[in-house]
Amino acid sequence: MGLRLRISLLLCCASLISFGQYDNIASQIPDSLYEHANAMVAFSGTEVEVYSTTSLKLKVHKVITVYNQQGVDQATFALMYDKFRKPSNIKISTYGLLKKNEKKVKQNELIDAALGDGFSIYNDDRIKYYKPVVDGFPFTIDYSYDIDFVGYTALPSWNPVPDFNVSVLYSSYSIEFSQDHEIRYKLLNNCGQPNSSVFNGKKKSTWVLANYKALKPEPYSPEIEYLAPKVLIGCNQFGYDGYPGDFSTWNSFGKWAADLLVNRQELPVESQAKIFALLKGVESPKEKAVILYQYLQEHMRYVSIQLGIGGFQPFSAAEVDKWGYGDCKALSNYYVTLLKLAGIKGIYALTTASNNKDGFHKDFPANIYFNHAIVCIPFENDTTWVECTNNYYPFGYMGGRVAGQPALLVTDSGGFLTKVPQLSGDKNNEFRKLNIQLNEEGNAQMKLQTSYFGEQLNAGLLQYTKSKTEQIKSIYTNLELKELELISHEYQYHKGSNPCVSMMATLQSQSLAQLSGDRMFIPIQLLDNPFSAPELIESRRFPVKQNWSYYDCDTIFVGLPKGFTVEMLPKPVRSSTEFGDYELSVTANQQEVIIIRSTRVRAGTHPAETYATLRDHLLKIHKSAKQKLVLRKAS
User: Fold this and answer.
1) pLDDT class for 391, splitting at 50, 70, 90?
2) Are 391 and 364 a contacting pair, CB within 8 Å?
3) In Å, how far are 178, 554, 612 from 577, measured between CA atoms?
4) Could you give the CA distance from residue 248 to residue 184 in angstroms, rounded to a whole number?
5) What confidence score (pLDDT) does residue 431 get?
6) Tens digit of pLDDT for each residue in 25-41?
7) N or C: where does the chain have the smaller number of CB atoms within 10 Å of the terminal CB?
8) What does the alpha-carbon distance between residue 555 and residue 559 come to, in Å, rounded to a whole number?
9) What is the DSSP code (8-state) at residue 461?
10) How far apart, in whole angstroms, are the C-alpha atoms of residue 599 and residue 115?
């Protein structure tokens, strides 16, 4: 790395004397910090001072140098706030090499806007935002701010490494609190112990990370938050918007959540009468629950509510009944209220909607995990979990982002930790059948049927509920054919004991096969293949991770054109590993060729040294898809 850039970074460090304890920052930046780095955290200082169970101050100062276009996002300043988080002392400056072209950003240059998420109609979250104009590399952004919290349910965690390809010269986090205030922490990913002290009746813990090399991402690796050092900070006693609580155990967490439901599960007399009439003559508790779920889906819609304690507390059942909408908390609480009217026990439950299922720590109760609410119904012979925000899900269906996640049952006796059931991979399916009739010119008439089951049902429902235009785009995306024309299509939703969304389409292609003399070449990769050949990594560093399990099967029937016979069939392929199974089989008779491709993927995390096995498995799949069926015209 050039001397001028080194001097520039040292100037960044030298400007940090306001954080006086950092005078000993290294006078020479190791070459290793530039390797694989799109950006460098030259300095990051986070200070948290806890005044009471309802009040704290957060002070942040960061200096980040960006080396190339891939690192530009690291220079974005984004500060979220609301009536409980009041920002002040915001200072931002940017400069180029050797601190040239320094620009001090004025407050009126910040974008200050409501933090719209695309679906919240009530949301008091706001954001102050600034993204520098880039006119060359390297450049540096230096910003600092304070936030005064006047109520909180969680304490700021420490994530010193923001992303892959970002190195850290120096980062620190300190938290100061009175001796009678209980603060907990959990160290993750080889994070070191803090330097702790006591002075004037206050405790202080400080973590430091220095000279941390940028992590280069690897295919099928865990996310950065599961690889880089990290500290979770938890509080026991707290207060938020007039609701004090205790997060020292999951049971006490549940008691706080239960207090938020008090006096919120009553309906007007007229609405009660409507429900009783709806259930008249129905004896089975499960049948009643199904009827009430259908009523919920037909009469209520989902919107997000994020106002004050409303971010944690649902609107009352009476308000939902009146307005006809609510967020996940409000709709779940409303459904529990309907069940109670029917004499059925329903339990309000907090959980997580996420593609990742590894970020939960059972031994560390804190309000940092849950972002969703559902309902658990403990029937006499089985327990059913219900998603209340989707107007199309069948009763008892959990989408893949919620299935398998931890859940906290909220009861009058407190919280009880459990897990949302998850289907086995063999029940999460996408089955496709493609019937092709070729003519002598290689043109084709085709009929396609795609069926979605299990956790993949949600993918089908997303298509089922789209506009016709969006459905057509999706169909074209899922076919790897040139000069393809969609003649007609239809989606059907079957809600039975094994719910399924099916799509039927009629298509034609003017160039499905290639002609060469008296031969016809037909690609077998007619339906999209989600697998690509991953790069070769000689010394794999990170574990190998697959997030979810499923079983898919494609069946292609190729009707032979008049006067043609099979000259060469694609070779069968079979591969079986701990990551999954793949099989390609091809058979033929006088009328048609049948190609069957089945893929089984198993979720799990495996040692780094197994990557070669995964790569070999995926290469076999990738190569098998390149084969062609060869027909020859009879002489």
Assistant:
1) very high
2) no
3) 54, 20, 11
4) 9
5) 98
6) 434 689 999 999 999 99
7) C
8) 13
9) H
10) 41
Q: Residue with structure tokens 């409000």?
A: 330
Triad 8, 12, 18: Cα angle to 5° = 160
Q: Taking the model in full, what pTM does it have? A: 0.91
Q: For residue 421, which of 403, 407, 436, 439 has the smallest C-alpha distance?
A: 403
The Cβ-side half-sphere exposure at 520, using a 13 Å CA radius, reads: 25
Residue 464 CA, distance from chain mean position:
22
Measured CA to CA, the distance from residue 166 to residue 301 in angstroms comes to 42
Q: Report strand pairing: 550-559 vs 592-601.
A: antiparallel
306 forms beta bridges with: 123
Q: Are 429 and 453 contacting, i.e. CB atoms less than 8 angstroms apart?
A: yes
CB-CB contact of 151 with 54 (8 Å): yes
DSSP secondary structure, 510-553, as one string: S-SSEEETTEEEEES--B------PPP-SS--S-EEE---EEEE
Q: Which amino acid is at 111?
A: I
- Crossing angle of helices 269-278 and 328-341, in 10° steps, is 70
What gap in Å lies between CA 614 and CA 377, rounded to an integer?
40
How many CB atoms are closer than 10 A to CB 18?
9
Whether the CB-CB separation of 29 and 6 falls below 8 Å is answered with yes
In 373-467, which ranges are continuous DSSP H helix? Answer: 457-464
- CA-based torsion, 110, 115, 117, 120: positive or negative: negative
Distance CA 160, CA 210 (A): 10
CA distance 387 to 235: 30
Residue holding tokens 């649902």? Answer: 314
Distance between CA atoms of 44 and 48, rounded to whole angstroms?
Answer: 13
Nearest to 603 by CA among 620, 580, 587: 580
pLDDT reported for residue 531: 80
Residue 544 C-alpha from the chain's centroid:
18
Cα separation, 186 vs 159, whole angstroms: 12
